[in-house]
Each structure stands twice: as structure tokens, then as C-alpha cells.
Design a protein that fits this description.
By secondary structure, this protein is an alpha/beta fold. It has 7 helices and 17 strands. Helix 1 packs parallel to helix 2 and helix 1 crosses helix 6. The radius of gyration is 22 Å and the shape is globular. The N and C termini lie far apart (54 Å).
Length: 380
């Protein structure tokens, strides 16, 4: 049926009845995406659930606290059965290995602190899965992310979630304008997670009390090092812990066991002031330590920038924005100076500690909830 311009706009932004609006819901098996699917099905939309199998589930079947494991596929399928809409499982293991896991291992070994969940959204969920949704003739794709999409004067805009403690904008900064036009985030306006669970109970979902996922899905119990050792044998070679003046202070059992800003577990005692990991030198197998003051960074080089502003990124010499350099920190005032179409130097007005290559630097409006994209921190 052709688009009926006289029909009122539905809740997903289309001028046609929900029953004629097909929406693919990316279902991880958790409570958030399950509520999205149930809510849209209850509103009468033509819902198709899709779950991605991202890695070998042999070891993961019994593991709680990670998305996309075997039990989660089962839970997503059950919700689809309960609500009476079709559900498909797509095998994306090879894509996920190439696009996410390999880069995670390599960048970690290069002394960076990678954020694979961003790469997964960017290279798998919002790329290949989004194309699959279009192949299924869906009008849009919906996810359970806590972020808001608002239509502004120049088109769709990305905004932080209503609830700052659940906001996932740091992990979604690389969403492009084209993807944003196609995506929908029905939970972004909810006040808290309790509201989501209340909806799950209201819809009678079997996952209403399921715990939230905590770990990176392919890193059980947050043990990065054991995963890297499996992926890159020989990566845990021992070496020296040296201070910033080059003095050997101790030994380590592999650079991959350390992160920038780490203080505990260095095995160096009896000092007048504590030492922190300030640099990882993978080539020389050295963990470099120094006083806390050495962690403070004011200038941050950023590349692979995805810009979501209304004007071109290079149309101004500098942008006065707030930026986040870690997912757990609030945005801080900064000046973003473009050095190319997708590169910039970011000046933090207040120096930050523990700024690490491999993390994202996400751009926020100084006032209000809008997100202007972001990029990846590198060594420069």
C-alpha cells in the first residue's frame, strides 16, 4: 500500500497505520530489547525480531552477565513466541571476529584501552544488521539502547537519554546521519531502569527479572588478559616495571595485564607517594610508572571523527563543546579544533587523568542533551 499522507504520524514517525509499518527489532535477549519488541508488537506494528550470534557459544552457555550468549538467543526467541512475531537468528561470528575481536586484541596489545562495544555497534549492528533490516523491507530498525533520537530543523539529531545514569551515548557516537534516519530508540525517554522492568512485567515477559549484562560479551568475568592470551599466544611475556626516569622498579608478567592509570597490583611498596601506570611500551615490554601528576592530560588528539553537527566540521576553526574521554565520566568543557575532515585536537579546559589511546572522545553540546558525534583517542 502506498504511503497515505493524510494518515496521522505514528509513534515511529511514519504517516501510515502501525500495522503497515514494519520494524526490525535488534534483540539481545535482555530485558531492554525485549521490552522494545513487546511494546511495538502491542502497539500493532509489524515486528520482526533479529538476534545476532556473535561468537562461539560452547563456553558461554552457562555464563550469566554477557549479551548474545546461547541462553540469550533462547530468551529472545521465547519473547517472540510469547508476543507472536517472527524471530530470526543470524550467524555473524566471522564478521564479529574480523570487525571487533581481532582489533580489540591488537589495540590492547599496542597499549591502548579499546571499547569493542562501540565497534560492534558501528561495524556490525548499525552496518550489516541495518542492511539486513532494509533487505527485509523494514521501514526502520529499533534497539533497546538508552539514547534519544529527536527530529530537529535539519533532520534527525542524537540526544542523551532522559536518565543520565543509563545514558549510552558514549557507545553510540559513531552512528552516522544516514543510520540515524533509519534507527529508533523507544526507551531513551524513560526515567529509569525500574520503568523498563515495570513495562516488562506489564507485558508478561519471561525476562522481566533477568539481570543486566555487565561484561563485554566475549570477555567472561571481565578477564581481558586471558582472552588476549588465547587470541594472541605469547602476548603475556614478562618485562620490567620502570619509573619515568628509567629506573627499574620491579617486574611484570605481561604488559597486557596493565592499563593506564592503574595503581593497584604493581608490587612496588615503601614509597613516599604512590605510583601509577602512566605509559605502556609494548615494543620494549615495559610498564612505565610515575606520580599521579603525570596522568593529567590537557591536549587529546582524536581521529576517525563522526560529526553530527548541522554545519560541516571544518566550517569553524574551533567548536566550544563538552567532551567525555571515558564512559564513566561526566562531560567536561573543551575546545575542539579540526585538523582535517575527520581529525582534531581537543583541548580540555580542565586536565583529565588517565586519558588513554583506544578510548573514545565524545562531543556534547555545552548546554542541552544533543550529541555532536566524536572520535577515537590516539597517541598523535
Amino acid at each position: 500500500m502506498a504511503l497515505d499522507e493524510t494518515h496521522p504520524i505514528n509513534s515511529l514517525g511514519f504517516a501510515k497505520p502501525p500495522s503497515e509499518t514494519r520494524v526490525v527489532v535488534a534483540m539481545s535477549g535482555g530485558v531492554d530489547s525485549s521490552v522494545v519488541a513487546a511494546k511495538l508488537a502491542d502497539e500493532g506494528y509489524d515486528v520482526v525480531g533479529v538476534t545476532l550470534q556473535l561468537y562461539d557459544h560452547g563456553a558461554a552457555l552457562a555464563k550469566k552477565g554477557a549479551c548474545c550468549a546461547g541462553i540469550d538467543i533462547h530468551d529472545a526467541r521465547r519473547v517472540a513466541e510469547e508476543k507472536g512475531f517472527p524471530h530470526y537468528v543470524l550467524d555473524y561470528e566471522n564478521i564479529f571476529q574480523d570487525a571487533v575481536i581481532d582489533e580489540f586484541a591488537d589495540s590492547y596489545l599496542a597499549g591502548a584501552t579499546p571499547v569493542p562495544c562501540i565497534r560492534c555497534n558501528e561495524r556490525v549492528k548499525f552496518k550489516d544488521l541495518l542492511e539486513t533490516a532494509k533487505d527485509l523491507d523494514a521501514d526502520c530498525m529499533a534497539t533497546g539502547h538508552y539514547i534519544q533520537r529527536k527530529v530537529g530543523e535539519y533532520g534527525p539529531e542524537l540526544h542523551s537519554a532522559e536518565n543520565p545514569s543509563k545514558d549510552q551515548s558514549y557507545f553510540l557516537f559513531s552512528t552516522t546521519p544516514d543510520q540515524l534516519a533509519y534507527l529508533r530508540f523507544p526507551l531513551g525517554h524513560l526515567p529509569n531502569k525500574e520503568a523498563t522492568r515495570a513495562l516488562a512485567a506489564e507485558y508478561g515477559l519471561s525476562v522481566a527479572d533477568k539481570p543486566d549484562s555487565q561484561d563485554i560479551c566475549f570477555v567472561p568475568n571481565g578477564d581481558y588478559a586471558s582472552v588476549i592470551e588465547k587470541l594472541r599466544p605469547g602476548a603475556a611475556e614478562p618485562g620490567d616495571i620502570v619509573d619515568h626516569e628509567g629506573n627499574v622498579r620491579g617486574q611484570h608478567n605481561g604488559v597486557l595485564h596493565y592499563t593506564i592509570g592503574q595503581r593497584r597490583g604493581l608490587g612496588i611498596g615503601g614509597l613516599s607517594e604512590p605510583l601509577y601506570v602512566v605509559k605502556l611500551d609494548v615494543e620494549n615490554k615495559q610498564v612505565i610508572v610515575g606520580p599521579k601528576s603525570m596522568l593529567a592530560t590537557r591536549t587529546v588528539p582524536v581521529r576517525e571523527i563522526n560529526w553530527l553537527g548541522d554545519e560541516p566540521f571544518e566550517s569553524q576553526k574551533e567548536w566550544h563543546l563538552s567532551v567525555k574521554v571515558r564512559s564513566t565520566r561526566p562531560p567536561r568543557e573543551a575546545i575542539v579544533r579540526p585538523t582535517g575532515p575527520t581529525t582534531a585536537e581537543v583541548e580540555l579546559l580542565t586536565p583529565e587523568e588517565g586519558v588513554s589511546p583506544g578510548q573514545a572522545c565524545v562531543f556534547y553540546a555545552s548546554e542541552g542533551s544533543r550529541i555532536f558525534g566524536g572520535g577515537w583517542i590516539w597517541k598523535g
